[in-house]
Structures are given as structure tokens and as C-alpha cells.
Model the fold of this input.
Amino acid sequence: MAITLDIKSELPTAIKWTNEHTKQLPFSVSQALNATAQGSKFLPGSKQKSVLNASRGVISSQLDKPKEQTALRATVATKRNLQVTILPKDRPYKANPYIVGNIQGGNRPVRQWERDLKAAARQSIPANLRLVPTTALSGQLDTFGNVPRPVIRSIKSGMSTTYLSGGSNYFAGKPRGGKRPYGIYRRFAANNRLQAVFIGFPSLSYGNKLTRLVPEMERNAQRNFGSYLRHFLHRNVAASVKAGRADLRRGFFI
Done:
């Protein structure tokens, strides 16, 4: 969804428009766009009012313990390119699938640890099933609710696809008897008990948690852009006048 700003409607009206205003307009618009998107050092408090800050508020309130990387970034407008593009961060990893998925919905992409576990399970878990950690791993998750790599390595190294332990600590597949689902189970007391640590599900949906994100960003941009544009236009014209190079002849808005 594109955010459209009506530049002409935000221009100052109670002034004498000069050729210098016309000359300074593209640069002033670029400054206003950048300040609207991510704040400006020339406008105290503008970072807190920015589109990026508004996006952080929605993401942190709607997602469960999002990482710092799960955020947006902004390109920079210039007087020759009067547009700013808001994108998910792509370093150190690409946040685009996660953010877009929570806006548009749909199935979650398969994570690398899930691929690793299913490869170690050697087809004992159907390919169409997704692995979800259970509460049995709650004490081993990181602060963001993710399964740490050492835990995945430990499970892989101690996994067996046969029901009898053979000295393995984990069983991958569907337990005998009962209605327990496909998954990965921790073994206890020489096969007398199995505890599920990952359960297989047909699909995992995002659930549209970030449906407010784009509308909130649009409201933020509409609220701040006009005052920023008028501020920078006045500032840039005044600086040119002070330097003695302003063309103050009566101009025409083009």
C-alpha cells in the first residue's frame, strides 16, 4: 500500500511566493519526507514522531517478543528523487517474510532449525507437517521464544527413528498406540515414557497481527509532513536570503 502526500495542499499560503521558494521547494520536500519517515537532526523530537517510530510501536505491541531486527527501515529522498520507501530490515537477516506475513496472513516459511530436525528424522515425519516446540522446551528457549542452536544440535545428535531406544535420547515419528501425533519425543526410563518436545502440524498461519501497521504509518505521515515541509521551506529560503543569493522576484508556482 502506497502512502500518498498532497504537497501542494501543504504549502504555506499566507506568504509572498517568490522564485526562491520555487527554487528551494524540491530540497525542502526531500527534507520533509526524510523527517517524516525517520526524523531529522534539525527538528528536535521528530524521531519520536516519525513513521519508523510509529511502526516500532505497532510491531512491539502486536508481536510476541519481536527481535530488534524485526523492524522497518527507510530509504533517503533527494531533491532529484522525491520519494521514500519503507522496507523491512534485511541485515543481519531478512525480516521481510515475517513482517509481510503478519500483514497479509498466510503460512509461515519453514525455518532452518525445522529443516535440520526433519532431515535428521529421515522421513519419519511426513513432509507436509510443520514442527512446533512444546512447553517441554520452555525452559530452553531464548528470550525471543526461539529454540537455540545448541538445543537443536543436541536433539539431532541423540535422535532415533526407531521406537526402541538403542541408547538414543529422542524418538522421531509417531509413537505406538494411542493418538499421539507425529513429532519428536524425549525418552525417559528406557522407553517407558515419551515426552513431546516438537509436535507436527499441517500448517502454521501468521494470523494478520500487523493489520494496523500500514494504516498507522499513513496517519503518522499525513499528520507530520505538512508542518515539516513549511518548516524546511521557510528555513531554506531564509538561509538563502541571509547569504545574499535569494531571487525574491515574484514567481509562479509550477
